Amino acid sequence: MNKYDYLVTGSVKWLARVIGFLACGFFLLFIIGEGMPGIIRGQTKELLPFLPLLITGILGYIIAWFSELVGGVLLIASGVAMATYLLLILIGGSHNLKAALIYGAPFVITGILFIIFWWLYRRCGHS
Predict the structure, then answer these.
(1) pLDDT value at position 94?
(2) 49-96 per-position pLDDT tens digit
(3) Is 6 helix (H, G, I), strand (E, B) or coil?
(4) Rounded distance, CA 42 to CA 59, Å?
(5) Structural domain total, the chain
(6) Helix (H, G, I), strand (E, B), or coil: what is residue 114?
(7) Domain span at 78
(8) Which spans in 31-125 are helix H?
(9) CB count, 10 Å around CB of 19?
C-alpha cells in the first residue's frame, strides 16, 4: 500500500465514521427528546414502526466499526427502509420526498462509504 492509497483509504473510513456518528447522534437525540415523551403518553403511535428501522441503522453503524461490509449493508438497508416507510406509509405519497431523503440519505451514504472503504482496503492487499 503506497502513501496515496493509505491516505485515500483512511479518509474514506473516517468520513464514513463521522457522517455516521452525526446521523446516529442527531436521530437519537431527536427520538429521545421529541419522540419518546409522545410515545410514553400514547400520542405518537405512528413513530413506533419507525423505531426498529432507526435502531437497525444505529446497530449497522456500530457493526461497521468492526466489519465494514456487514455494517455498510445494514446501513443501506435501514436507510432505504426508512425512506420507503416515510414515502409510502407515514406520509402517504411521493409529495414529501424531502423528508424521506433527510431520514434515509445519511444512512445510505454512510453505508456506501463503509463498503467503499472495505473494497479499497481489500484491493490494497489486506484481507
Answers:
(1) 54
(2) 778 888 999 999 999 999 999 999 999 999 999 888 888 776 555 567
(3) helix
(4) 26
(5) 1
(6) helix
(7) 3-123
(8) 36-41, 50-64, 68-85, 97-123
(9) 17
Given a cut of 70, is residue 8 above it in pLDDT? yes
Smallest CA-to-CA distance from 60 within 98, 102, 23, 89 is with 23
Q: How many CA atoms lie within 13 A of 123 on its CB side?
A: 11
Is 125's pLDDT higher than 90?
no
Give the integer Cα–Cα distance in Å for 121 and 118.
Answer: 5
Nearest-angstrom CA–CA distance, 104 and 98: 10
Distance CA 90, CA 82 (A): 10
Which pLDDT does position 95 carry in this prediction?
Answer: 60
| Maximum separation of any 2 CA atoms in the chain, in Å | 57
Give me the sign of the Cα torsion angle 101, 69, 49, 85. Answer: positive
Query: Around Cβ 45, how many Cβ atoms within 10 Å?
Result: 9
